[in-house]
Specification:
about 170 residues; mainly alpha; three-stranded antiparallel β-sheet; 7 helices; about 40% helix; about 10% strand
Length: about 170
């Protein structure tokens, strides 16, 4: 009886589960996908004043692909600063592609955290870890020109990162 009261473990949604959201006072009946209702999604919903809320009677936090894509499309429109404001580009709304790191396995998220030496409290669950990694990933500064140039060179020369390292170590011998 005590096990029935415990919340389900944050794993993949069960077959037949429906979205946990209430859309404009009506419960969504679409099948739940892999995306979970996180604090970041809740913040986006409240900031954009969307008529979405979580159904507190369900025992999972999975949302359907429709709502996931809808929330991402609303959230991804960001304003860029003009050169008058000190920014580099003209002011316009751009679609910033969102990478859904909730799809990754926990071990992959942990490797990312370890690689970038991200500081977190111990014992994070997958949703919390994915949230931390997503926040870091969105804020990484990338020199796009240099990255694209390197990528095109690697593709044209049929070299991968591992091959490049082994060749540079051969040159040292």
């Amino acid at each position: 009886a005590a096990a029935a009261a415990a919340p389900p473990a944050p794993s993949a949604p069960f077959f037949g589960q429906s979205c946990c959201l209430i859309d404009d006072a009506e419960r969504c009946v679409r099948p739940a996908g892999n995306a979970s209702f996180s604090k970041r999604i809740q913040k986006s919903i409240s900031q954009k004043k969307l008529k979405l809320d979580i159904d507190k009677s369900v025992r999972h936090l999975y949302i359907c692909d429709f709502h996931k894509n809808f929330i991402q499309s609303v959230r991804n429109k960001r304003k860029r600063k003009t050169s008058d404001d000190g920014g580099d580009s003209p002011e316009h709304e751009t679609d910033v592609p969102e990478v859904d790191l909730f799809q990754l396995q926990v071990n992959t998220l942990r490797r990312y955290k370890r690689h970038y030496k991200l500081q977190t409290r111990p014992g994070l669950n997958k949703a919390q870890l994915a949230e931390t990694v997503s926040r870091h990933f969105r804020n990484i500064q990338v020199n796009e020109k240099e990255t694209l140039t390197c990528f095109i060179y690697m593709v044209k020369s049929n070299k991968g990162r591992l091959e490049q390292k082994s060749e540079s170590s051969k040159q040292l011998e």
